[in-house]
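Hi U.,

Before I forget, here's the chain from the pilot set. I'm dumping it here mostly so it's searchable later in email.
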Amino acid sequence: MHGLYLVTPDWDDTDCLLAVTGTALAAGAALVQYRHKSASPSLRAQQAGALLALCRRYGRPLVINDHLELCRDLDADGVHLGGTDAPIAHARALLGPDKIVGASCYGELKLAESAQQAGASYVAFGGFYPSPVKKYSFVTPPELVDVWRDRVALPMVVIGGMTPQNAAPLVARGASMVAAITSVYAAEDPDYAVRAFCALFGRAGPTIAG
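Structure:
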């Protein structure tokens, strides 16, 4: 749980989705979250399965946004849950002790503490900056990263309008991972964008397995 946390956009074009994700993985993305809010069940299963196979090639985990049953059926690496999704404890009981279970905590440390007690693997805070993907009703202050380090013994993902420039002070404060969608998938050069994020953590791109 260290580096670029890549979140997929709402793209129906599976070939394009796989192409950019593959570029990002080759450039050093540490983890992929499959998130497609408007996909049909069949498209969601198709894309998640294809992304899982791609992530396996690079030895990187794939987590599924929201859909516990899909995660279980595919034997994906984990799930990410928001405030209105299934409870963390239920996800942990369903998926077992070895899967990743992430929790959106917005700007609330109490949610992070509760998620930790319920068995979460990491917590996500944000948005820290305005996002072109999701409209937040609040702005998470950078100082929250400092407080989290003292109160929650879990990796922290920062999210919301992340660019390498915006993320740099949060990583300097101790954020474990930076979540990005548009900064990679809408970039003119996704490889360059990913490497710029990875440079914040002193990471280089991995070698493809097989």
